[in-house]
Description:
Blueprint: H1 2-21, H2 41-47, E1 50-61, E2 68-79, H3 81-86, E3 98-104, E4 119-126, E5 132-134, E6 139-140, H4 143-154
Helix pairs in contact: 2-4
Amino acid sequence: MDHRVTLSVLLAVICAVAPAGSQPLHGRVRPRPKCTDAQPLEQRTELANVIVSGYVGKVMRKPRTLQYNCEVQIVRIFKGEETVHNGISPPMDPQTNQIMVTGFGDPAICDNAAHVGDVKLLLLDRDRNGFLRLNSSLVRITLGNLDMTNAFVKGKFLFC
Length: 160
């Protein structure tokens, strides 16, 4: 009987102390930054300089940071073909259509996680060093998203 009471008291103490123990020692919890790309797809396509659909072939994590780079094999270029072929560093591999994209894992971008094997629409910008960087959330490949992106880029808006 004593063992059950002791065990109950021990569990109660652990449950009471565990939430306090999970807080940082300095006493404050830093709020997560809010993502800034909560705009509709139409506005995001206007802001992006390069829009491609692509297959994530390789993920390269950076040490001591949340952000990482991905090697992406381009399936289709919707916008920025000249930039992709001539204006980026490192240049696109003409044999495999692979480009390097930075900015994955950026907390300012809502849906920013990519995994090997993902096929997504990527809305990109070229940074001052010539690298292609994720501009806004990754977009799922659906027939509707492909049609809308194509229409927005060509200036032909779809009304459903």
